[in-house]
Design brief:
This protein has about 325 residues and is mostly beta strands. The protein has a single domain (about 5-310), classed as TolB, C-terminal domain (Neuraminidase), CATH 2.120.10.30. It has 3 helices and 23 strands. Strands 1-2-3-4 form a 4-stranded antiparallel beta sheet, with no helix packed on it. The chain has a 4-stranded antiparallel beta sheet with strand order 5-6-7-8, with no helix packed on it. The protein is globular, with a radius of gyration of 18 Å. InterPro entries: 6-blade_b-propeller_TolB-like, SGL, SMP-30/CGR1_Lactonase. It holds the Pfam family SGL. It comes from Lunasporangiospora selenospora. This is SMP-30/Gluconolactonase/LRE-like region domain-containing protein.
Length: about 325
């Protein structure tokens, strides 16, 4: 069984779902462990936090603790290190372009309000998205979720801020920002991060502060609707990314999950949204347990749409 830290949801071209839970990468349909960090002899600092399916049937799996991204093939217990950098804060989440040749990464330090975003183009070196992309007076703080538009020309990232309330840190604000990219996938000349949606306003600020909404993973569908996991709020926010400002579509309440960490769309028609996270508890004494909720949505996901365009095996 997956432990309470389940996150990093992903999909393959056949529509099957996968997730990670610190030490393992797992097929959610069968429960089969496809990669185990302990069996592979990786250090105890390893902390799997992200996964993404590739057109070749393999997966990228992010190791936030060991600052690496592995490429994993089914049936192979030993991973290949695809990316690594001691300058990375994590990485915590990953997004990939339609052709699989452009990869973007996010990371953060929760207690220090820090976040970073990196990218690699055409298997080239890792490059950090510089602070020059920040507008005067605007700075992305804890970056968690990261996603790429269907045309590959906009990069989305969450930003959240903690404040000390009654001696402990609690999230007090959260937004999603977008950055324009050029045709090669680099930040466009002179491009600056701009806020496209205030998640606390979209949810209702009073309710957001009450539950301590903390944005986690997010995924686009094929029509430009974003699904954002709202950690702590037992909900997913669907919002329209088309246009200069995001527009709330629906707040989807989750039946079994209190703190969603990530999500993805897949299934036979690509329209099943799977959300992973920490289960709701009957009391504060219960240990964290992993839950998976499924929701039918109007459109197939961007990821599975892109994978099926490039795969003959679906």
């Amino acid at each position: 069984a997956l432990i309470g830290s389940i996150e990093g949801a992903s999909v393959d071209a056949a529509g099957r779902f996968y997730a990670v839970d610190q030490q393992r990468f797992v097929d959610l349909q069968t429960g089969k462990v496809l990669f185990d960090t302990q069996a592979a002899g990786l250090p105890n600092t390893t902390f799997l936090a992200a996964s993404r399916g590739l057109r070749n049937g393999r997966f990228l799996v992010g190791d936030a603790g060991y600052h690496k991204v592995y490429e994993i093939a089914r049936g192979h217990s030993k991973p290949r290190v695809r990316f690594q950098s001691e300058e990375w804060l994590q990485p915590n989440d990953i997004t990939i372009s339609a052709n699989g040749k452009r990869v973007y990464f996010s990371g953060m330090k929760w207690s220090e309000y820090k976040g970073d975003a990196w990218y690699s183009l055409e298997r080239g070196p890792l490059r950090r998205i510089s602070k020059e992309t920040n507008r005067p007076g605007v700075s992305l703080e804890r970056i968690n979720g990261i996603e790429l538009s269907g045309d590959g020309r906009r990069l989305f990232a969450t930003s959240a801020r903690n404040e000390i309330i009654n001696g402990s840190q609690k999230p007090q604000s959260a937004q999603v920002y977008a950055l324009d990219l050029d045709a090669s996938g680099k930040p466009a000349k002179g491009a600056k991060w701009r806020m496209v949606i205030d998640l606390y306003e979209a949810v209702g600020k009073e309710e957001a502060l009450k539950t301590g909404v903390d944005p986690d993973g997010m995924r686009l569908d094929s029509k430009g609707i974003m699904y954002s996991a709202l950690y702590g709020h037992a909900a997913v926010l669907a919002w329209d990314t088309r246009g200069k400002r995001g527009k709330k579509v629906e707040l989807i309440k989750l039946p079994t999950i209190q703190s969603p960490t990530n999500l993805e769309m897949g299934g036979k028609d690509g329209r099943t949204l799977v959300v992973v996270g920490i289960c709701k508890k009957k009391n504060g004494e219960e240990e964290d347990k992993a839950c998976v909720d499924t929701i039918r949505v109007p459109n197939p996901g961007r990821a599975i749409t892109d994978l099926r365009k490039g795969s003959k095996r679906h």
